Fold this protein.
Amino acid sequence: MKTSCQLTYFALTAVGLIMTSCASTTTPSAANPFGVRITHTNDVLRVELNGRLFTEYYYTNVPRPFCYPIIGPTGLAMTRNYPMLTNAPGEELDHPHHRSLWFAHGAVNGQDFWTERKNSGKIVHRGFAEILSGTQSGVIRTLNHWISAEGKTICTDEEMIKFYAPKDETITLDFEITLHASNGEVTLGDTKEGTFAFRVAETMRVLKPKGKPGEGHIVLSTGVRDDGASAAAAKAAKKEAATWGKRAAWCDYYGPVGSNIVGAAIFDHPFNPRHPTWWHVRDYGLFAANPFGQHDFEKPSDPKGGDLKIPAGQKVTFRYRVILHEGDEVKGRIAQRYSDYIKETAAEKK
């Protein structure tokens, strides 16, 4: 049995007090790479699954923390390279704030944390609560401050990403974020610009540039679907694609990467506020769960009816599961995996 050091930061000041404690656990090593290994490399956290790079967690000198790249079960990246690579060949250079896999929102007390404009806010890393490798799973827990363009702290968060060692043809991770109204009441505004998001690889797009049909597909748990032909027809009619802005328990976005069909599914946790969530999922590759976009998605009479308020001193938690799989949602057994997820959450409630 090897010893793994668990790194803990107590954010008592702006800098924080750093304390290291060691927990006895079995962890992957160079000799035995199976499991989840998380290491510091050049100011990022490198996450390896069974000895292979899965992603890197970026948290310094960035507008918000994010994971890039996301390597799928066939060994190829399933997220777009831009804007992390500014000269990525064959990629559209749109939406420079779409950073692979991330969480942000476009209206937090009126401040935009979604885009990266001059007057946008930033989600600033303040420390790690836990970095833990293991043979079954690994965990990153981080503490962040949401800072306005004027330098004011609007709220804070605790974020957790749990990576599972692959045991079959899929890769699974869980994402959890707790937003704290630590500096007064927080209003998460009613806007489509958010929130837990994934920007798929260019080859997976449902629509190619200039409205040409692509080879990607979007499917919701409700059975609503989009493919290249339907999305192109909707665009020609100046309408949104069928899946955009709809509510569903899960959404799957699949298409070709290299010589294989692969997909990414996001599960909305049944305990999340406003479950099942709305999906800000676009034919050009954006794929986001957004529980705050009711006004844009459904056009109710009250433009602020979808606001979510967190009273001062209180908090709200959102949880999601990401499944990366081969094939379409049927081959990936997404409906069954979501059913299993529901059983897990029922056990949690007990």
Summary: DSSP finds three helices and 21 strands in the chain. The longest strand covers residues 153-164. The radius of gyration is 20 Å. The mean pLDDT is 91.
